[in-house]
């Protein structure tokens, strides 16, 4: 299963962890909040979960590419 990363900018605390870990997927916007890199690749489910779980504020979510359903990252 592949997933698409989504970021809740209202929850991001600008730790930079995701940006450092996957600069091909996430970057900082002008307010130093994480946002998706344009054209960011979809990720294998397990890779996405690891990325989401590493976010200290829980700002990163995952969506199933095929169904559009939210994926539980816990
Ligand atoms: S890991 Fe989470 S809190 Fe840190 S920059 Fe990324 S989305 Fe924001």
Question: What's the gist of this structure?
Answer:
It comes from Actinomycetospora corticicola. The chain contains two helices and six strands, in the order E-H-E-E-E-H-E-E.
Topology:
Blueprint: E1 2-7, H1 17-21, E2 26-28, E3 34-36, E4 43-44, H2 45-53, E5 60-64, E6 70-71
Antiparallel strand pairs: 1-4, 1-5, 2-3, 5-6
The structure holds iron/sulfur cluster.
Iron/sulfur cluster binds next to helix 1.
According to CATH, what is the topology?
A: Alpha-Beta Plaits
- Proportion of strand residues: 25-35%
Gyration radius, rounded: 11 Å
Q: Count the DSSP helices.
A: 2
Question: What ligand molecules are bound, each kind once?
Answer: iron/sulfur cluster
CATH class descriptor: Alpha Beta
From the N-terminal CA to the C-terminal CA, the straight-line distance is: 17 Å
Strand order of the main beta sheet, please? 4-1-5-6
Low-confidence stretches: none
Class from secondary-structure proportions: alpha+beta
């Amino acid at each position: 299963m592949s997933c698409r990363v989504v970021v809740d900018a209202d929850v991001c605390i600008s730790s930079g962890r995701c940006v450092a870990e996957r600069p091909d997927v996430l970057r900082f916007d002008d307010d130093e909040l994480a946002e998706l890199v344009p054209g960011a690749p979809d990720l294998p489910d397990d890779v996405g979960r690891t990325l989401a779980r590493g976010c200290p504020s829980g700002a990163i979510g995952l969506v199933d590419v095929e169904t559009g359903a939210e994926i539980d990252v816990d």
